[in-house]
Amino acid sequence: MPALTSVKYTNKKVKKIVTISVIAVVAVIAIVVGVKFLLDSGAFSKKEDTAANSFSMTDEMNSVVSETEFHRGYMFSRVTKILSDDPKMNPWVLSWYVLPGTTRSVPAMQSAYVDTFDQVLLLESYVREGKRSAAKTMIDAIDTSLTDGNGYLLKFKRADELVSEENRPEVEKSDLYEDQANLLLTDAPISMEATTRYLRALLNYYDKWGDAKLLDRIHDLSGKVFDAGAKSSYRAADRAAMPTPIPVTEKTLVPEVTEEEQQGDGATLVQSEGVEICAMDLDAMRRAAVLFPEYQEKYEEMIRIVKEGKISQELPLYAWMYSEELGYTYYTGSAGNAELVPSLYAMVHLAEIGQLDEDGYAWVSSKIYNDGFLYSSYNIMSGAPSDQEASEAYPLVLYLAVIKGDNDLFTATFNAMMRNYATLDTSVALYDFFRDVDDSRIAVYARENLLMELIIR
């Protein structure tokens, strides 16, 4: 029988070994976690400087948001739940969801489409929040399913082409609130707007986690973006539409529409080849030119093309397209209306590189201050607005205010947006921005909610 002292000594020795082992295991885990964190952060990767710009809300802007019913952090999770999780569309987000009516005869509806630009905005959100795995999944999904054979991003895809309908919930799929141009096209065209925004998203991803392989990818995509002048774009218009490449400064220059041309209902498709003004993400192109100086001359030429696309001092909106052969196409409908949202994207792109003129900024500010509403288009002669509100326009103006550090414009625009912010606890759209659509229906769109997520964070 061993002595008691011997047993105690053995127990102490065992406890010491166990303690040392536990400490060693914890240390190894800590080292592995630390190394993984450093690898994920890109600390071991030698990265080139992309000269990224950063525009932040002022303290006063943050105070304005805090004093309203807006809930930071909830909007993103709510909109992805409605447009991705519930319809089982992961990793995609649908374009929109229309809430059910008050009776069973008015069921919920959801978009039958996935808009590529929305997916790129979702990718940007993941990058900004440091969600590397989700961002990488989205990049892989876009590359696999939303690009053409030459590496340009497509404008859209039908949801049933991306996700099997077999396991999806039974909700009415609809084309009712889609972009009319999408419905008139058998096959999705490329989207330069989505392609150049994708360049921005990849640059942001590279800044956080990138490596030499991704830099090569960015170089290749940059070449495609700077070659954008050879690409076609499409717009839906009325059947009497006649693209007008000449600057229209007198009423007599607006083409007359014959009675024969007015026959027929519905929309037609206008196609043009050249540089789509709103699609030129100048800040992404600037960063690409910093990385790859061979594009500097093309970048400067693109700035000139966008700036000279302004319609007039009185209506400082922007043309749709530019080509060397036709010049600028200012509008596509027979009524002579310039579209607001594409023009605002052009303004944002110019503002990000410090090139937006005061005319455009003053015009937008006056619409917010004096009218309180923004509309989808404005007549190039009279300046009269259409009767359709442009929900996507508000976050773009809000971002312009952030870029400029304009607290007053930010406040007025944010208050205008809050008119359509859901606060009812029982609403499916709670904490999301919504649109009023036909027949008193309410719809949640991915676009303005994802844009707001990138601005107010």
Can you describe what's shown?
- This protein is of the alpha+beta class and 457 residues long.
- It has 2 domains: 44 residues; 401 residues, Glycosyltransferase.
- Helices cover 46% and strands 11% of the residues.
- It contains 16 helices and 14 strands.
- Strands 5-2-1-14-13 form a 5-stranded mixed sheet.
- A hairpin with a 3-residue loop joins strand 9 and strand 10.
- Helix 4 packs parallel to helix 8 and helix 14 packs parallel to helix 16.
- The longest helix has 38 residues.
- The chain is globular.
- It starts with a helix and ends with a helix.
- About 5% of the residues have low confidence.
Briefly characterize the structure:
By secondary structure, the chain is α+β, with helices and mostly antiparallel strands. 46% of the residues lie in helices and 11% in strands.
Shape: globular
| Rg, alpha carbons | 26 Å
Strand and helix order? HHHEEEHHEHEHHHEEEHHEEEHHEHHEEH
* Beta-strand percentage range: 5-15%
Helix content: 40-55%
Task: Give the SSE layout.
Layout: H1 4-41, H2 59-66, H3 74-85, E1 96-98, E2 109-111, E3 113-115, H4 116-128, H5 132-145, E4 156-158, H6 159-162, E5 172-174, H7 180-183, H8 192-209, H9 212-226, E6 232-238, E7 267-273, E8 275-276, H10 282-291, H11 296-307, E9 321-323, E10 327-329, E11 337-339, H12 340-352, H13 358-371, E12 377-379, H14 393-404, H15 407-417, E13 435-437, E14 441-445, H16 446-455
Parallel strand pairs: 2-5
Antiparallel strand pairs: 1-2, 1-14, 3-4, 6-7, 8-9, 9-10, 11-12, 13-14
